[in-house]
Specification:
five-stranded parallel sheet, 142 residues, alpha/beta, globular
Length: 142
């Protein structure tokens, strides 16, 4: 089993699509996720990894964010009261401990999963591969 150090934070971590849907089309979110995000008592985090993923995928044409200037996304996240989680060097170097799962090698997903486990955050994601990591301690809701 994958072992993480003591958590530094508790709350919810948004996967990239969850973040984008929350600011552009909340109807795509499950009712449960929408309720969690809208409850001001719930600490909601977005990783700086998400902004990097958006920048790269936007540049290569894998995603298009219509009606939103992606350069404003960090400010938009703050307007939604999302705290920005900046991984440190230890977060990056320990990410090698997360086991590789068949057919899932996406580095952005893997880092978000690793952060969620390390920081004891519940990740809000609809990603079909994330349930593969429940045995490693991933807490997942959709």
């Amino acid at each position: 089993m994958y072992i993480s150090p003591e958590s530094e934070k508790t709350g919810y971590l948004l996967d990239t699509h969850t973040f984008l849907w929350s600011i552009s089309d909340p109807s795509k979110l499950s009712v449960k996720v929408r309720n969690i995000i809208e409850d001001e008592n719930n600490p909601v985090f977005i990783s700086s990894i998400t902004f990097w993923e958006i920048a790269i995928k936007e540049k290569i044409g894998k995603i298009s964010i219509s009606g939103i200037n992606s350069l404003l996304l960090p400010n938009i996240a703050k307007e939604y009261n999302y705290s920005i989680l900046n991984p440190d060097a230890y977060d990056f170097i320990t990410s090698k401990e997360l086991p590789l799962k068949k057919d899932h090698k996406d580095p952005f997903d893997r880092m978000l999963i690793h952060l969620a486990v390390r920081k004891n955050l519940i990740i809000l994601s609809k990603d079909q591969f994330f349930p593969l990591y429940k045995d490693e301690g991933l807490q997942l809701l959709w």
